[in-house]
Structure formats: structure tokens, C-alpha cells
Write a structure and sequence with these properties.
It contains 8 helices and 10 strands. With about 240 residues, it is of the alpha/beta class.
Length: about 240
């Protein structure tokens, strides 16, 4: 099975190709350019470098949110367009789940934190559990707290209820590192730079897991997951006196 994966949910833009259990390519950029400038050229570069025939792609996996509203729209629109053109399904991969999956097999609890602005983070809490019945010879991602938008204080309180070490990752690490240091009551650490941010490779691999569980959708039916209203929508409601 060949999966083309995209992630533009945060500051990082990333494209990857997974064929069966082989990662053929990954192109990731974390720089100043917008995803509208980078994602399609990156996809084209991967296609050219690997001589990828898009007609052989079986599914398109995309980090479907939460995350940057603009980034999610760009990634989802690109995935949707590819899915419609190629006649293949879309695998909507929850952004925070994909971040957690980068820490595959880790014994500690995993807490991704993405800076969601307005004093909130997109986050969740995860662990890997050995399970031969669902994935022979491997670990299964167990969701302790589903992805959500909450204050950093709330997710730290949740972490402190477990008597286990926690690993934090995501672009919220440099933003909230001091708050974590001040409030954590259990051992914790921060993921290293090469595991900290979004990765289309993780979207592809976890997308493959979801696909084989029957979790996929048609390109026509695909929609990104925002979790909360955009700034423009909030401002409109405020003007209308609804907030």
C-alpha cells in the first residue's frame, strides 16, 4: 500500500511517502515561508526525486487538525484535491495523535503541546501499550485524554494525576517550558529537536494504522478539525453580541 502524507497543521510543512512498511521520502521545512508557498513545491520535489507516479497512490493521509487555521485549510484542500483527482480515500489523522505517535514505544506518558494562542494549547495525553492482539509484535497508541484545546495549567494538572514521568513535545515547548517547570509535580522531560515538531512520516505511519482499522473517508467528505472558532469567527460573534 502506498500512502502520500501531508502535514501543514503548524509552523512545520512536511510531505512524506510510505510504501507498505518503507518510508520512501520525507521533506520537512520549518522556516519563515507560508505553507501556500512551500507545500506544493515540496510535494513536487518529492514526486520528482522518487519518480513517484501519483496514479499509484492508494490513499492520502493528512494532519486534519487541530492546528493553524490557515495551515489546516491549505493541507486539507491539497489532500482533498489529490484525493478527488486520483480517486483515492483520505485518511484524516488527528494532529495531536500524530505528534504523540512520533514517540512510538516510549514507556513514559506523552503530552504534545501546540501553542494555540489565547493562553491555550492543543494537547492530549497518551501512552503506548504492548498489544499482540491488535498489532502483532508492536505497541498500540492508547489515548488517555483526547486532543483538545485547554489552558497549559489544565493539561499539567491532568499530567500530575498520574504517578508517571511525562515527555512533552510540540511547538508549545519553548513557549510554556517555564510554566511546565513551575507546575509539574511528577518527573518530566522535553523531546529532542528531531522529535519535537510535526512530521508527515508520522502522519503516514499512523495513517496506515488507522486505514487498516477502517478509519478513512472519501475525498468529497473530508473536512479539517478546528476544535474552536477562528479569530474572524470570534470577532464576528462578538460584534453580534453573542460572546
Amino acid at each position: 500500500m502506498k500512502i502520500l502524507a501531508l502535514d501543514s497543521s503548524g509552523l512545520t510543512a512536511s510531505v512524506a511517502v510510505l510504501e507498505d512498511d518503507k518510508l520512501t521520502a520525507e521533506y520537512t521545512v520549518n522556516y519563515k515561508k507560508t505553507h501556500s508557498q512551500t507545500l506544493i513545491p515540496m510535494l513536487d520535489a518529492v514526486r520528482n526525486m522518487t519518480e513517484l507516479d501519483l496514479g499509484t497512490v492508494d490513499a492520502v493521509a493528512v494532519a486534519a487538525g487541530p492546528g493553524s487555521f490557515t495551515g489546516l485549510r491549505i493541507g486539507s484542500a491539497t489532500a482533498k484535491g489529490l484525493g478527488l483527482a486520483l480517486g483515492c480515500p483520505i485518511i484524516s489523522v488527528p494532529t495531536v495523535d500524530a505528534l504523540a505517535y512520533q514517540m512510538y514505544g516510549l514507556k513514559q506518558l506523552i503530552c504534545p503541546i501546540m501553542d494555540a494562542r489565547r493562553s491555550q494549547v492543543y494537547t492530549g495525553l497518551y501512552e503506548f501499550v504492548w498489544d499482540n492482539t491488535k498489532r502483532p509484535g508492536g505497541y498500540v497508541l492508547h489515548i488517555l485524554k483526547e486532543q483538545c484545546a485547554v489552558s497549559i495549567e489544565e493539561i499539567i494538572r491532568c499530567c500530575n494525576t498520574y504517578d508517571r514521568e511525562v515527555v512533552f513535545l510540540g511547538d508549545g515547548v519553548p513557549v510554556f517550558a517555564q510554566t511546565v517547570a513551575d507546575l509539574m509535580q511528577v518527573p518530566y522531560s522535553f523531546a529532542p529537536a528531531h522529535r519535537r515538531l510535526q512530521s508527515a512520516a508520522a502522519v503516514a505511519v499512523y495513517g496506515s494504522v488507522l486505514y487498516h482499522q477502517g478509519i478513512w473517508e472519501s475525498a468529497a467528505g473530508h473536512r479539517p478539525v478546528y476544535l474552536r472558532l477562528s479569530q474572524a469567527e470570534r470577532e464576528r460573534l462578538e460584534k453580534e453580541g453573542q460572546t
